[in-house]
Amino acid sequence: MEKFQIIAKTLFGLEEVLVEELKLIGATDIEPLNRAVSYYGDEEVLYKSNLHLRTALTILKPILEFKAKNETELYMKAKEFKWEELFNVDQTLSIDGFASGDLFTHSKYIALKVKDAIADRFREQFEIRPNVDVLNPDIKFNVHIATDKVTISIDTTGEQLGKRGYRQENVFAPLAEPLAAGIILLSGWDKESEFFDGMCGSGTFAIEAALIATNTPPGLNRNFAFEKLNTFNEELWQKILTEAKENVVPTSATIRASDVYKKAVHIARSNAERANMDKWIEFDIADFLHSRPKTSKATVILNPPYGERIQMRDLLGMYQEIGNNLKKNFAGCEAWIISSNIEALKLIGLKPSKKVALFNGKLECKLHKFELFRGTHKERVMRRRI
Ligand SMILES: C[S@@+](CC[C@H](N)C(=O)[O-])C[C@H]1O[C@@H](n2cnc3c(N)ncnc32)[C@H](O)[C@@H]1O
Question: Which domains does the chain have, with CATH numbers?
């Protein structure tokens, strides 16, 4: 099958995780960009990207590249493309525009010009033009202009991949699903040992962990925009879907989700039921400050309140208590904590062995990794000498 360039958009800080995911689905010439990864693949890789990638948001397929110095050139060159081979006149479309450089300054206007080019081409051929539907289009295009370099891509995804569909109820400040999945993949959790989110909120980490452990593709129960294109290969898609379903496995890992707030645990459980992952997760109403791991090799992932969207009386004291409990009860385990509150993170009182910069929505965050050893540093050095 013919190979072409594909661009997967992602979140800041997850580019390298996405590169690793792409290697597993047969992508080649992989190149991390800013909040995106460029790679090459055939139609199979394109479909698999939408189905399997946990840290991608949108999969774009560039279809047209040319140079234009003004709107007339943009319109003329866009009109030359055989849009009628891609989709039918009775399908609705929407176009997003992004411009940088000083030749084109209005993103909305460039989108409008390309829309006019497509509509006029259809009208000249069929005496009828496709309608625009900004909210729920069948086909979505993306026009990107960097100075005079125009790239027009098809959005092959449709509704963003991050919207997995299981999270219909949220507690305060939930993490985006691709961010939660990205943090789990960054942690290197082995999918077999204990996984513990002691501040689970709406359950995103535990649900994503169960999806990963069972090899369940995040996009198994949804539709994608590529299915509406004239170039859609139904037979290939059914083969990929069947293969993916056959590769789903049960997990023996202990995956735990608890929260001090009873309603959060109820919501997390309902979300897990919707994702069909509830049978792999142990839910509990518990204060993390007094929780313990069930085994000595747990991966703990916490997204405590930051004090931004959730106001708490003694936020700093709570971070101190998280650190105290980790030191006291989690020897042998690894803890990963994400927060935008850097002052509070310092109060954990443990030296992070790794720091990763991420964004939770617009909030700049740090993800800190803590390796929890038994005893003090001095005692460990002494033990090693004996
Ligand atoms: C930022 S939210 C977590 C959001 C979650 N990651 C999600 O995606 O929905 C923080 C959670 O910590 C919980 N929490 C606060 N203090 C806690 C404690 N001492 N023990 C357990 N949970 C706690 C809150 O109830 C809240 O659900």
Answer: 4-155 (3.30.2130.30), 177-217+239-382 (3.40.50.150)
